[in-house]
Specification:
about 260 residues; alpha+beta; 6 helices
Amino acid sequence: MNDRDRLKARIDTLSPMAVRFVARLVDSLVDAPAPNTITPTWLTRHPEWVEYFGLAVSAHHGTTTEPLGLTSFETVFRNACEALEWSIDAPGSATRRFVDVTLTPADGTTRRLSLKSTAAKNLRERTAHVSKLTEAAWIQDVRSARARRLRTLELFRDYRAAVDAIVLLRAFREPGTIPNRYQLVEISSDLFKSLDDVPESAFAADGPVIDCPYGGLSSAAQVSIDRSDAKITIRRIQLAACTIHAEWRLVKSTTVSSSARAR
């Protein structure tokens, strides 16, 4: 018995309501988004991975209008890798520092990734934003430019030693609708190497914003040391300095009902 026959046999054991639920889920898979644009990368050279991710996005929106959030994104990302039988570590705890997933795809190269997601309003086409790269309680304690520079460089050296890249899922949407497009972007941690060359004077402000030259760009991104929230934010990340793995355009954009908004 193949997978299709086993699925049919299992459906025959379900209640009428369960069959209705499965039918709705299957309907969402029929309309699964095909990738609109694909850059040949270590990830997208495996079309099965891209297909699985698109199916998971479609199944997600078969039951909700909410964007795929960080926890769901990590689950879908891991499941897509496992479907291809790639080597992948077990999920870490919520307090695991920096790295969310370590995997080894078919090419044999181990990659340590930090997964991020955003569905913020007015996402830009040419730049991205990571609202919280990591927390850093020391930000509120340091007072001198020298101490601020030393702690920042220490943090980013640790970060680059632990993380190969950030993988960011961006959900584009209009207010009150499901996302009409998802974009998967990879940001190399090498982008932060230039911080080692930043002079102490750049850290004089309580909340300095520091340009990061990379890939021939004078400012491929900006590191913002957010004193009020004790976190590191990465602003104005130039997509020209990143890898866009793929985009998925959803066929339909369902408006949230007034009753759903009232809840």
